[in-house]
UniProtKB/TrEMBL annotation:
Record-linked PANTHER family: NADH DEHYDROGENASE [UBIQUINONE] 1 ALPHA SUBCOMPLEX SUBUNIT 9, MITOCHONDRIAL (PTHR12126:SF11), NADH-UBIQUINONE OXIDOREDUCTASE 39 KDA SUBUNIT-RELATED (PTHR12126)
Protein name per its UniProtKB record: NAD(P)H-binding protein
SUPFAM superfamilies found in the cross-reference section: NAD(P)-binding Rossmann-fold domains (SSF51735)
NAD(P)-binding domain: residues covered: 7-139
UniProt cross-references to InterPro entries, sorted A to Z: ComplexI_NDUFA9_subunit, NAD(P)-bd_dom, NAD(P)-bd_dom_sf
Biased composition (Polar residues): 267-276
Organism for this UniProt entry: Nonomuraea antimicrobica
């Protein structure tokens, strides 16, 4: 199949492209930055908010992996109007399947950014196109970046009552590629990490991996979204689930052989190992990063 990937330069996009290529698909990748096509990835310029370039991007594709987002601070500009534009043009172009990535809890706790994800889900389910919604829990890589900012504080306010279920983007990407290969599921599918841990464990594991010491002040975060998270609305029991734990991601086992060295360099982003940070250039993901992603085995 020829598959358009929106959000191709993002954290998940960088893992979804190699997963789709590995599954034998042709990939067209959308970005607001102009890039030259390389190998079997065709890069196209387009902006989901203005709509420029989107008609050309959907022309001739069989399916769309719609990963683009304007994030928590973007007021849903890409998730809602951008998704509407994409779906309208995809329908006109005869696209048969749209897979939309949403967040676990969007249906149960539609507050803050999650309400934009739920609004976009509704656009997808009512689009008349074949659809699949993949709701994931927070990515290891996203939490790692947020904790890097958080640790700038000398004392960390930590709410121990909040459950988290971090998941690895490589595993989300593998699931997304399998769902695209299978065709429209016509349902919402949840995918979370292997363990639910609280904020204290999340932060302490990260500090240990970063080699940092910070005092933690135990607090209770206010707001409806945190209340929903506290009640377990942002975690999932759905199976299958990811296998790579937060601990393994940050503190991989010592290299025992060439194989386990690959595990450390390709599947972790230990704050203590700058060489292990996720690549910024998605071309690097495609041609050497998460390519051929497989669940690492521990020696
Ligand atoms: N991060 C998490 O922990 C998490 C957890 C669960 C679900 N999700 C979902 O997974 C998906 C991917 O998330 P991510 O963290 O990989 O996203 P990300 O790293 O923030 O990347 C956002 C992507 O959206 C694209 N984009 C932004 N504005 C655009 C516009 N106007 N037109 C076209 N493209 C635009 C960007 O491409 P350019 O800048 O190249 O144009 C970029 O590739 C999203 O649907 C997100 O809601 C994320």
């Amino acid at each position: 199949m020829r598959i358009l990937v929106t959000g191709a330069t993002g954290t998940l996009g960088g893992a979804v492209i190699p997963a789709l290529l590995k599954a034998g698909h042709e990939v067209r990748a959308l970005s607001r930055t102009k890039r030259n096509g390389r190998g079997n990835v065709e890069w196209m310029w387009g902006d989901l908010v203005s709509g420029n370039g989107v008609r050309e991007a959907v022309d001739g594709v069989d399916a769309i992996a719609h990963l683009a987002t304007s994030g928590r601070k973007g007021r849903g500009a890409v998730d809602v109007p951008g998704t509407r534009t994409l779906l309208t043009l995809a329908r006109a172009a005869g696209v048969s399947h749209v897979l939309f990535t949403s967040m676990v809890g969007a249906d149960r706790a539609a507050h803050g950014h999650l309400r934009h994800k739920l609004a976009a889900e509704r656009l997808v389910t009512e689009s008349g196109l074949g659809w699949t919604i993949l709701r994931a829990t927070p990515f290891h890589q996203w939490l790692h970046a947020r904790l890097g900012e958080f640790a700038a504080l000398p004392v960390l306010p930590v709410d121990r009552s909040l459950p988290w279920q971090p998941v690895h983007t490589g595993e989300v990407a593998t699931r997304a590629a399998a769902l695209l290969s299978a065709g429209p599921a016509g349902r919402e599918i949840e995918f979370g990490g292997p363990h639910v841990i609280n904020t204290e464990e999340l932060v302490r594991t990260w500090l240990r991996a970063a080699g940092l010491r910070r005092a933690c002040l135990f607090v209770r975060y206010p707001g409806r979204l945190y209340a929903a998270q506290r009640a377990g609305d942002l975690t999932t029991d759905a199976v299958p689930k990811g296998e790579i734990t937060w601990y393994d991601y940050l503190l991989p086992p010592p290299a025992m052989s060439d194989e386990s060295d690959d595990f450390a360099s390709e599947h972790t982003a230990s704050p203590t190992s700058p060489a292990n940070q996720p690549e910024c250039d998605p071309d690097l993901h495609v041609y050497g990063g998460d390519e051929g992603y497989e669940r690492p085995t521990r020696g």
